[in-house]
């Protein structure tokens, strides 16, 4: 087969011969080292090295000098080549280990970086949440301030409306009072000129004029106040006990109790001022207020 150049058949025959030598306990393994040489030439270093080492160990055990000389050269060549291959493999393994180590370090560094970024992101989210909560609180405060501002504006608008209403009423009342004073003075002059002093004295001592002026004052106040607060009586009664509401007499717009609290609604809370306006004693005002409470 060697002369024919049929390498596959040669390897097959040598393998059968080597197996036969091993089964027959023959220590001279010429077939095996020849097969190892062919495999070495083909580049199959691992099997060539295994076969030649086994053949050499058997030859050494057999102590065949000629066979040892024959196999020494190929053994040295195969062993050297095998060692070079092992060194290359070890070098590749070392390079691979270095690459793996570097990649592991890079991966670890990447994981550390990602972890730190996640911590920063978490801290940023927490800070953002704190800021959002603060903004929410500020918005709530602004809303409350807006509500208070709206209420203040309503109060100012209400106050301006009250002022406008009462200024108009006051001017009208003053004009009417001036006219009445002028007419009263003319009447007094006529009585004096006519010598009707006793009649004039009787008129000036009478309470009717004062009572009439006071009733007119009350009527003007009641009309002006109810024009500004038309539902005042109903709302005031809602604050009282259901079985004890304030019931107005026929023709009344407000009574004394309601006038007291109407003045309080207008911002006049001092009992002495209320007493002066309504022409009652301070004790009477206190009693009315205590009664309603």
Description:
The chain is mostly helical and 293 residues long. It folds into two domains: 7-100; 164-292, no CATH class. The chain is built from ten helices and no strands. It has helices spanning 7-23, 30-42, 45-62, 65-193, 197-205, 208-228, 232-238, 256-265, 271-278, 282-292. Helix 2 runs antiparallel to helix 3, helix 3 packs antiparallel against helix 4 (65-193) and helix 9 (271-278) crosses helix 10 (282-292). The longest helix has 129 residues, at 65-193. The radius of gyration is 63 Å and the shape is rod-shaped.
Q: Main attributes?
A:
DUF6377 domain-containing protein, transmembrane, mainly alpha, 2 domains, 0% strand, 293 residues, 10 helices, coiled coil
């Amino acid at each position: 087969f060697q002369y024919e150049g049929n390498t596959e058949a040669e390897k097959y025959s040598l393998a059968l011969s080597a197996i036969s030598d091993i089964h027959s306990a023959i220590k001279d393994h010429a077939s095996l080292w020849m097969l190892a040489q062919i495999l070495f030439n083909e580049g199959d270093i691992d099997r060539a090295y295994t076969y030649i080492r086994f053949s050499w160990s058997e030859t050494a055990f057999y102590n065949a000098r000629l066979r040892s000389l024959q196999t020494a050269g190929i053994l040295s060549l195969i062993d050297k080549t095998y060692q070079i291959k092992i060194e290359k493999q070890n070098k590749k393994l070392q390079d691979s280990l270095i690459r793996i180590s570097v990649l592991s370090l890079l991966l670890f560094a990447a994981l550390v970086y990602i972890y730190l970024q996640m911590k920063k992101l978490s801290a940023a989210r927490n800070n953002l949440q704190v800021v959002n909560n603060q903004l929410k609180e500020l918005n709530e405060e602004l809303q409350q301030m807006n509500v208070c501002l709206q209420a203040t504006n309503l109060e100012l608008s209400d106050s301006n409306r009250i002022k406008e209403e009462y200024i108009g009423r006051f001017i009208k009342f003053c004009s009417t009072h001036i006219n009445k004073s002028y007419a009263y003075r003319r009447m007094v002059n006529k009585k004096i000129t006519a010598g009707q002093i006793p009649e004039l004295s009787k008129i000036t001592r009478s309470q009717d004029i004062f009572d009439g002026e006071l009733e007119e004052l009350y009527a003007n106040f009641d009309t002006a106040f109810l024009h500004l607060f038309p539902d005042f009586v109903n709302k005031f009664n809602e604050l009282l006990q259901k079985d004890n509401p304030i019931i107005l007499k026929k023709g009344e717009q407000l009574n004394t109790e309601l006038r007291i609290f109407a003045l309080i609604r207008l911002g006049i809370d001092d009992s002495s001022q209320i007493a002066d306006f309504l022409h009652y004693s301070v004790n009477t005002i206190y009693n009315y207020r205590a009664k309603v409470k």
